[in-house]
Amino acid sequence: MSQAVIIHGPQGCGKSRNGDALKVAFNAQRVVDGWVPGEPLQPGDLALTNAEPTLPSDAVWVSFDKAMLNVA
Fold it and tell me: What's the helix, strand, coil split of the chain in %, to 5?
């Protein structure tokens, strides 16, 4: 994964609980749990947040529900 990916969803939906599986599914280098918009992300980061998507962004925003479709 060359671009950072931000997984967003409401608090308690399972982002942190599924962080390791999402990391594998998105081929990420590291998980940044509790990410806040404005904090820097590196290529290969998988950020987990309950923030709403903001534009413009260098990262790809994916809803938690859609991200889980990639988890085997």
Answer: 15, 25, 60
Is 31 in contact with 48 (CB distance < 8 Å)? yes
Which residues, including other chains, have CB under 8 Å from residue 22's CB and lie 6 or more apart? 7, 15, 28, 31, 46, 48, 67, 68, 70, 71
Q: What percentage of the chain carries pLDDT values higher than 70? A: 96
Q: Which amino acid is at 29?
A: Q
pTM: 0.90
Q: Is the dihedral of CA 22, 66, 44, 59 positive or negative?
A: negative
